[in-house]
Design a protein that fits this description.
Rossmann fold; 2 domains; seven-stranded mixed sheet; six-stranded parallel sheet; 29% helix; 26% strand; globular
């Protein structure tokens, strides 16, 4: 099959690799209808994560089941499915506690930017749609496999004032999540007008362009000096984490979903202000049924985060566009 592979920092290629096969009786093979590039894919692209030259990359996709293992009971060839980026059996103690991203049989999508993807624990992971969705639904359904579910995971407390740190696809979906959950004010920290426009469409009531101390002061002014009831950290850098705790009111919680790189927690401030930390890798399967209903009912349209659609052949151009912040999120069509 054709698949996106990474060979070094800045070196993305579309290459021929062996088709994935059924390795365990709980597996399924999905033919990808749409995949995409994630902001977290930019960490290895920029040389911030270790790279195995020639390995496939991409963890978000939706598509049609092509083959299932002998133990798969709930899916058959031809089903249109959403593939959460983290795979789970949905029956272990951690899954039953709502932490499917820590499943005893955790698996990951490893070729979402390709023609085929292997899904481990298919019965516990996949969610099928009611027939083949209309083409207009594809972007929003694809967003559910990671970024919308991750934004939802960050929105740890409904109501009050939510402050979102980060205006990438996850941060924008965090805005949508906080608004949908009933936050009275949703503040997004963003310096980019196209992203600000999407944030407002998703329900942001305030936009703060300043960063650092100036940004924290602006949030304090919006909240009457109190601070945020909930803070969504959707970047993964030390600066973003520092800002999150600077704007959080005493007794509140920071929901962090940005993949952390070089982050040091302000433990003394957390202690003194009784500010908690929650979040982590999103248990996507936990949220998929509710989010799928919100999309199909027309209540949310997270697919608006895709501002570029490219053929899989042009995947390297998509990485460059996102790396240079010329695109928020790139949808790929095999």
């Amino acid at each position: 099959m054709r698949a996106t592979t990474i060979h070094g920092p800045g070196d993305i290629r579309l290459t021929e690799v062996p088709d994935p096969v059924i390795e365990q009786p709980t597996d399924a093979i999905v033919r990808v209808v749409a995949g995409c590039i994630c902001g977290s894919d930019l960490w290895p692209y920029r040389g911030e994560n270790p790279i195995t030259a020639g390995s496939t990359i991409g963890h978000e996709c939706i598509g049609v089941v092509e083959e299932v293992g002998a133990d798969v009971r709930d899916f058959v060839a031809g089903d249109f499915v959403l593939v959460p980026f983290c795979h789970c059996d949905n029956t272990c103690a951690h899954c039953l506690a709502g932490v499917q991203s820590a499943c005893d049989h955790l698996g990951m999508t490893s070729s979402g930017q390709a023609e085929l993807a292997r899904v481990t624990q298919a019965d516990g992971s996949l969610v099928k749609t009611d027939g083949t969705p209309d083409a207009s639904m594809i972007p929003s359904l694809l967003a559910l496999t990671d970024v919308m579910a991750t934004g939802w995971h960050a929105a740890v407390r409904p109501g009050g004032t939510a402050v979102v740190i980060g205006d990438g696809a996850v941060g924008l979906c965090g805005v949508l999540a906080a608004s949908t959950m009933g936050a009275e004010k949703v503040v997004v920290m963003s310096r980019h007008e196209p992203r600000q426009a999407i944030a407002r469409a998703f329900g942001a009531t305030h936009v703060v362009a300043e960063r650092g101390k100036e940004g924290a002061a602006a949030v304090k002014e919006i909240t009457g000096g109190v601070g945020a009831d909930a803070t969504l950290e959707c970047v993964g850098t030390d600066a973003a984490m520092g800002t999150s705790f600077a704007v959080a009111r005493p007794g509140s919680t920071v929901g962090f979903v940005g993949v952390p790189h070089g982050v040091e927690l302000p433990v003394r401030r957390m202690f003194q202000k009784n500010v908690g930390l929650a979040g982590g890798m999103a248990p996507v399967r936990r949220y998929l049924p509710e989010l799928l209903d919100l999309v199909t009912s027309g209540r949310i349209e997270p697919g608006l985060v895709f501002d570029s659609t490219l053929a899989l052949d042009d995947v390297a151009d998509g990485y460059r566009a996102m790396d240079e912040r010329r695109a928020i999120k790139v949808l790929l069509q095999p």
